[in-house]
Amino acid sequence: MPNLDLTDVRSIIQSLKDGIKEYRDAGKFKEILDNMVKFYQYSFNNQMLILAQKPDATYCGSLKFWNSLGRYVEKEALREGGIKILCPVPYEEEYEKKDAEGKTILDKDGNPEVQKVKGIRFKVGRTFDISQTYGKELKLGSNELVGEGLDIANFLEQMKEIAEVNDIRIENIPFSSAKGYFDPKKREIVVREGMSDLHTTKTVVHESAHSLVFKDKELEESLTREEHEIVAESVAYVVCKRFGLDTSEYSFNYVNGWASEDDSKIEKCVDFIATTSKTLIERMEDKLGLKKELDIKKDLHNEKASEIKKTKAQTKKKSYQKGLKK
């Protein structure tokens, strides 16, 4: 990725657009997906910013997050400003309505009519990798999706709810080379019988990605058949690797086959891959009890921070409304 100008939001976004082009070939695409495995909770843009600034990062959090766990950011990392990311800042503003001549529009009681405007702005924030901190030792291990003797039947039952489908079953698929398919009308997933536990698991995740994409009609219609397959197989790779399964030997040949050396298809898909992977990983962690201890603590930290931010925003809004009435 080109050198990042990290002084403002506009320059960061432009650097991202330029830099993503450098990750289009198969080897670099794998780097993007491997980065999603580690930082699925971040937006795709922030994943790329972390990759560009600290390729060896493994787990990132804010200064307050690390302090809450009894770990502290090293002075050098603080001095350098950490890893710069984009932080969304929701806002709601009220304006007095104006007519074509710029005069305030009044309601029937003679009071100014007010228009509410909601949106999101971005500011430059910072995060720190665990390697840039010191202090209390943390348990970073996590349960894996599979070990010896995966209970496929139980996995399929759990995945029904995760994938939001009516049924997932393993059966013979005659006269077809497909390993499985998703039926959007019946909202069913069928997987070829006789495959290994690993390939069965990967195929279920692949078809589950299809099920989520097809549920979003606007997204489903915006993708070509090739792009649907690129998204589904890339999601399968990210999700499986998150839980200790490496499907790269199969997945990247599959993706390259559907991309047909057209790099723009992969570039178009990366945001969808990131968001769909995040959805499936979070649902699987919750449903199957596979969340890392550090992730649980980060969720609690973010939930508390969100409540504080919401309270501050409500207080600010009330103060603003009082100002309008004066």
Features:
8 strands; globular; 326 residues; three-stranded antiparallel sheet; alpha+beta; 12 helices
Tell me what the structure shows.
53% of the residues lie in helices and 16% in strands. The radius of gyration is 23 Å and the shape is globular. A 3-stranded antiparallel beta sheet has the order 1-4-3. 27% of the residues are buried. α6 packs parallel to α7 and α7 crosses α9 (225-242). β7 (180-183) and β8 form a beta hairpin. The chain is of the alpha+beta class and 326 residues long. It contains 12 helices and 8 strands. The chain folds into 2 domains: 9-140 and 292-325, no CATH class; 152-288, no CATH class.
What is shown here, in short?
With 326 residues, this protein is an alpha+beta fold. It has helices at 9-20, 26-38, 44-53, 63-68, 75-80, 152-163, 197-215, 217-222, 225-242, 248-259, 263-288, 293-325; strands at residues 60-61, 71-73, 83-96, 114-129, 133-135, 167-171, 180-183, 188-192.
Low-confidence stretches: none
Find the count of extended strands (DSSP E, 2+ residues).
8
Figure out the total of helices.
Answer: 12
Largest sheet entry: 3 strands, antiparallel
> What does the overall shape look like?
globular
N-to-C SSE series? HHHEHEHEEEHEEEHHHHHH
Query: Cα-atom Rg, whole angstroms?
Result: 23 Å
Helix content: 40-55%
